[in-house]
Amino acid sequence: MKRFALAAVAVLFARIACAEDVTLRVAETVTIEISGATAAYAVDPAIADVTMASGGRVTITGRSAGTTQIIAITASGTRAYVITISAAAQQPVPAALATNAPIGRADIRYAGGAHQVQSAFDVFTTDGERRSQFHLLNVHYLTDSFGRSTNAIPSVYYRTTSGRRTLTLLDDFIDLSPLTIRSTQVRGVHLIDGPLELHAGYAASTMYEDLFLPADRRWVASAGYGIDRGRFRIIPSAYAFLSEPRGTAARRGAVASLASEYRDGETLFARGEMAVSRGVAGSGEVRYQTERDQLRGRLFYKPNDFPTLGLSDLPGVHGEMDWSRRATKRLNVDSYATFDRTKIAAFDQTVGVANVAVRYAVTPHLSVLTGADGSVVRSGTDASIRTIGIPIGVSYDAQRFGAAASYRLLDNSQSSRHGDTLRLSGRAGSGGFTVNAWVERQRRAPSLDLIFRDTPGLELALLRLGITVRTPEDLARVLRDNAALINLGYIDGVTVNLTPRRVQSGVDAAFNSADTRNQLRLHAVVDRSEGVASTQESMLATLSYTRRLMASTDIYASYSRWRTSIASRSIDGSSVEAGVRHRFDGLPQFLQRAGTIEGIVFLDPQQHGVINDTTTPLDGIVVMLDDTRSTRTAKNGAYAFRDVPPGKHRVAAKLGASKPAYFTTPSTAELNASGHADFGLVWSPARIIGRVVSDANLGIAGAVINARTTKGADMSATTDTEGGFVLAGPAGEFTIDLATESLPAGYTIKGTSTRVVNAPADQPKNVAFEVQALRSVAGTVEGGQAEVRIDPLGLTATTDAGGNYVFRSLPAGTFTITARRGERVATRTITVPFEPVVLNTDAFVLTDVPPPVGTPQRASVSVPAAVRSFFVQLGAFREARNAAQLIDRVARIGTHAESVQSDQLILVRVGPYASRAAAAKTIAQLRGKGFEAIVTR
Hints:
Blueprint: H1 2-13, E1 22-25, E2 29-33, E3 37-42, E4 48-52, E5 57-62, E6 66-74, E7 77-86, E8 103-111, E9 116-127, E10 130-141, E11 151-162, E12 165-174, E13 184-193, E14 196-208, E15 211-225, E16 227-229, E17 232-241, E18 253-264, E19 268-276, E20 280-289, E21 293-302, E22 316-326, E23 331-344, E24 347-361, E25 366-379, E26 385-397, E27 401-412, E28 419-430, E29 433-443, E30 445-452, H2 458-463, H3 472-481, H4 483-487, E31 491-499, E32 501-512, E33 518-530, E34 535-550, E35 553-566, E36 569-585, E37 595-603, E38 616-617, E39 622-625, E40 629-632, E41 638-644, E42 649-654, E43 661-663, E44 668-671, E45 675-676, E46 679-683, E47 687-694, E48 704-709, E49 714-718, E50 724-728, E51 732-738, E52 747-749, E53 754-759, E54 765-773, E55 775-780, E56 787-791, E57 795-798, E58 804-807, E59 813-821, E60 824-832, E61 837-840, E62 870-877, H5 880-891, E63 898-902, E64 905-913, H6 916-928, E65 934-936
Parallel strand pairs: 1-7, 37-45, 37-46, 47-54, 55-61
Antiparallel strand pairs: 2-5, 3-6, 4-5, 6-7, 8-9, 8-36, 9-10, 10-11, 11-12, 12-13, 13-14, 14-15, 15-17, 16-17, 17-18, 18-19, 19-20, 20-21, 21-22, 22-23, 23-24, 24-25, 25-26, 26-27, 27-28, 28-29, 29-32, 30-31, 32-33, 33-34, 34-35, 35-36, 37-38, 37-41, 39-40, 39-42, 42-44, 43-46, 47-50, 48-49, ...
C-alpha cells in the first residue's frame, strides 16, 4: 500500500515545474504555447482533453469541474502545468424567472493499490448576488492500520460569497506571502470583506491525491487590511503563530508585516514586504509583460528562528527569475535563474541554476536551438558539484507530426571527462489517435537522488507523471515548492553523483472517439541507470479508460503495473483504480434548507419592467405564496416570506378590483426556497375580456394569449377552464395573438390567429377566438370501389381500390353513412363527439336488397372496438415547426413523441399501445403535466 500511495505524491511533484497555471470552464477550449513542446497529455483525462498542435501549441478542453495537471515533453525535459476546470458558465436569466437550483458533482473513486475509497461531494447554489459552495472529501480505508482511523476527512468547507465579502468555514487554502503563511490549508474561520482579511484556525494535514500527510495541529491567527491609493496598495498585517510541536520546523511567535503593491494594468505588478519578529525578513516580487517581453522574478529571506507554521514555509534565501523575449518573428530568447539556500535541522542544501536558450525558426515548421547553462549543488558539508552545459538541437512541428533532437555537452567539476545528454522525441496524430514517444541517454551527468524516510520507490512514482529529479533545476523546484515534505520529514536530504550511463524512454498513446464520449490512454516509462557498483532499472505502465455515459455522468478505470530492480533485488506490483463522476442539478429536499423569498412591488409608469429612477414603491399590495400564505408590501414596496420550505414555490401579486391595473412584469414567478422576484404595474382601467371556444362552443383551457400595446408593453394570459382570459393595459390599440402551439391536441385555429382591438378607458372590450376540432370518420367497404355518403351533411366520397374512405373536418352530431355499389346498399348511424376524434367504422358489407326505409342498420361507434394498435394523439398542425415545438415540450417530461404526416396535417402522437386502457394511462400522466390528448388508432 505504501509503495502505491507514493504514486499519489507525484501529483505534488507535478507542481514543481508549474511555470504557469491555466483556468477554464467546462466545454471551453484554450490554447497555450509551450516553447519546444513536442508532446503533451493530461494526468486525469476525465477532467480535461489535451491535444498537441504545431509550433508548440497545446489545446486544452474542459470536460468536467476539477483540477489536474498536463505534462508537456520538451527537448530539455518534462514540464507540468496545473489545470483548473470550473463549472460551465450559466446563461443570464431574469431575476423573476431564475430558479436558483443547486448544481453539484459527486465523485467516487476506488484505488485498489491503496485499498481505499475516495468520495468527493460539491454543491454550488446561487441566490441573487449571493453564491455558496459546500465541499466534502472523505477517504475510507478498506484495510486496518494500527493508530489510524478507517475514515479521514482531508478537506471540508462551506463558503459564501456576496459582492466583495467571502466567508469560509473550516478549510481554506491560504497563500498570503512567503514570509508568513504560504500555500497551506488552514481549518478554521476565514473572512475577506473588501479591504479586511481575517484568518484563524490550525494547519494539521495536507492531502496530495491518495496520500494523506498527518501533522500536529499548528494554530495560527492573522488580520490584514488593504489601503488603496490609486495604483498603490498598502497592506499592514499581524500574525500570531501559537504552536511549536517538538521535532518540527514550526516556531511560536508574533509577526508584524507591511506589504506594498503597485499595479499598472496588466503590464506591471510589483510587490514588496517586510516582516519583523525575533528577526527581520523581507521579500520582493515583480511581473512585467508586454507583447514581446515576459519577466517574472521573486526573492525572499527568512531567518531560521523566524515564527512559522512549519508546513509550507522554508527559512533561508530563495530567489527565482525568468525572462522571455520574442526578439523577432523568428527569434525567441528564454532565460532562467534560481538560487536556494535551505537549512532545517539536518537538511542543508544550496542549489543555484542559470540558463539561456535561443530558438530560431528557419521555416514555419523547422527550428534550431542553442544556448548555455550552469549549475551548482552543495549538500551540507559535502564538496559542491558544478556543471556547465552547451545544448544544440533541432525540432520540426507540423499539424499532425512533430520531432525534435537535442544534444547537450557537459563539463562537471568532479569528472575528468566530459559528459553529454542526447534526447530524441516525436509525435504523430490522425483523427482521434495520437502517439508521443521519447528517449534520452545521459553519460557522466549529475544524478540527483532525494533521500526519503521509509519511502522506497518514490522515483518510480514520479515517473508515473513523467517527472524525474535528474537536474539541478528539477531539484531547486522540488525543494522550493514542496516544503511540506521537508517539514514533515519525508525528505531527509539529497545525494549528488555522476552517472556513467543512464537511459530513459517513454511513450504516450491516446484514442478519443469522434463524439468525445470514449477515451483510451496508455502511458509507459522505462528508466535504466548504470552505476559504478550496480545497475537500477525501473518500469511503469498505466492503461486508463474514460467514458461519458450520459451528459452528466462519467466512468473511468485504470490498470497500472510497475517494477524496479537494484542489483539482484527487485520489487514489482500492480494496482487498479475505478470511479464514477456525476454532475447534478437540484438537491433532494431533505438536504436543502429553508429560505426567504422576497422582492419589491413598484409603480412603473414608463413600463420598463425594472426598478429605476422613474419607479415608485407601492405599499399595501397583497402578495401570495402558493395561494396559502399572504403578506402586504411595506411603505418601501418590499415583501418577504421567511422560513420557506425547500422545493418549488409560486409567488403572485394580487390586485383589487377597486383600482384596475396591469403588470409590466410577469405577475407570477416560480422560485426555490430562496429567491427574489419584483413586480411592476401601472394603474389602468382599460380591460379586454376574451374567450377561446371550439366550433362546438366549448371553452378551450390552457391556451396562451400574447398581446402587445402601441406603447410597447408586452403581456400574456392563459385561458381558464371555461376558455376565458382577461388582459389589462393602457388605453389604446392592442395586438392580440393566440399561440396556436398552445392549443390542445386535435385543435386548429379557425381563421386568423391575430386580433387588433382598440380598448378605451372604462369600456371593457370583448374578443373571441374560434378553433376547429379535428374530427374524422374512416372505414372500408368490402368488395372494392364504392360510393359513400354521409347525411344530412350531403358529403360523398369514393373508396379507393382497397375499399377505404375517409371524411374529415366534420361537425359534432349524429349522422347516417350510406355505402352503395350499384344496387347493393348498406347504412349505419354514427355519433361524432364534441372533442377531436378519429372514428374507424366497422367494414360495410353490401347486400343485394337495400334495407327498408326508416330501418337503417345502426352501430354506435363513439368508442369503436380496437382492430389495430392504439395511439395517444397530442396535436395536429399545418406547420412542421409547431409540431417540433410540441415534441420538444413533451420530451422535457420524459415522454417520447413522434410526428406523422396525414394529408395536409402533421400529427404528434405517442404509442402504439395494445389496448385503449393502456393508452388512457398515458393520457392521465400527460394531463398531470399540463398536456391534453386523445386516443386514436
